[in-house]
Write a sequence for this structure.
C-alpha cells in the first residue's frame, strides 16, 4: 500500500526547488531587510488573520477593524518590496493551482465517469 504522505513530503521538497518558490523566498528576504515595510507587512498580516478568525467564528467584523486593515493595505501597497512579493506570490499561487488541478484530476474524472 502506498503512503501518500511520503509522496506529499517529496512534493513539498520538490516545490522548494522551483523557480517560483526561489523567487518568492528571495522577495520575502528582501522585504525583511526593509524594517518599515516589513513592520507594516506584519501588522497587515496580523490584522487580516484576526479578522479572518472572527469571521470563521461567526462574529461580525467591526467596521473600525476593517477600516484599520484597509488603511494598512493603503500604506503597504506602494512599498516596492511588497509589490515584488505580491507578484511572486501570484506566480506561486498559479503553480499551486496547477498542482492542485493535477492532484484533484482523479476525483474529477471519477465524478465525470459516473455521469455517463
Amino acid at each position: 500500500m502506498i503512503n501518500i504522505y511520503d509522496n506529499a513530503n517529496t512534493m513539498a521538497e520538490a516545490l522548494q526547488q522551483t523557480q517560483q518558490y526561489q523567487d518568492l523566498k528571495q522577495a520575502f528576504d528582501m522585504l525583511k531587510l526593509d524594517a518599515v515595510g516589513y513592520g507594516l507587512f506584519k501588522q497587515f498580516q496580523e490584522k487580516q488573520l484576526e479578522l479572518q478568525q472572527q469571521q470563521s467564528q461567526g462574529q461580525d467584523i467591526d467596521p473600525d477593524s476593517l477600516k484599520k486593515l484597509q488603511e494598512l493595505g493603503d500604506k503597504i501597497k506602494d512599498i516596492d518590496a511588497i509589490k515584488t512579493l505580491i507578484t511572486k506570490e501570484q506566480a506561486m499561487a498559479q503553480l499551486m493551482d496547477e498542482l492542485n488541478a493535477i492532484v484533484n484530476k482523479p476525483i474529477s474524472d471519477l465524478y465525470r465517469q459516473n455521469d455517463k
Notes: Residues 42 and 116 are 50 Å apart (CA to CA). The chain has a mean pLDDT of 93.
